[in-house]
């Protein structure tokens, strides 16, 4: 249950972060905006990837709580899950 709570809070925080970053359309004193920078677009893309991954993990945890089996039955799933948890949220 704690894992599901953490995954759901991760989804909410990613959604809040994305909405704040995407809604910022202010221009600076030189008429420049964040949309022009590759780093900003990279941050938005990583945020979307994190949101999708957290959504899948929340679905997997809730499915596991109901059926006692994971969605993906493969021996490489635990290393993949560990790698994604470490790599997607630096």
UniProtKB/TrEMBL annotation:
Residues in Casparian strip membrane protein domain copies: 2-87
Record protein name field: CASP-like protein
Gene source species: Gossypium gossypioides
GO cellular component: plasma membrane
Assembly, per entry: Homodimer and heterodimers.
Main location: membrane
UniProt superkingdom: Eukaryota
Alphabetical UniProt keywords: Cell membrane, Membrane, Signal, Transmembrane, Transmembrane helix
Signal peptide: 1-22
Similarity comment text for this entry: Belongs to the Casparian strip membrane proteins (CASP) family.
Compartmental location: Cell membrane
Database matches in InterPro entries: CASP_dom
Pfam families, alphabetized: CASP_dom
Membrane topology: Multi-pass membrane protein
Stretches of the chain forming a coiled coil according to its record: none
């Amino acid at each position: 249950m704690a894992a599901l709570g953490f995954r759901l809070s991760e989804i909410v925080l990613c959604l809040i972060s994305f909405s704040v970053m995407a809604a910022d359309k202010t221009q600076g004193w030189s008429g420049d905006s964040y949309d022009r920078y590759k780093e900003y677009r990279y941050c938005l893309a990583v945020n979307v990837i994190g949101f999708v991954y957290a959504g899948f993990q929340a679905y997997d945890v809730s499915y596991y709580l109901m059926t006692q089996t994971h969605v993906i039955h493969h021996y490489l799933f635990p290393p993949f899950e560990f790698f994604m948890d470490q790599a997607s949220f630096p």
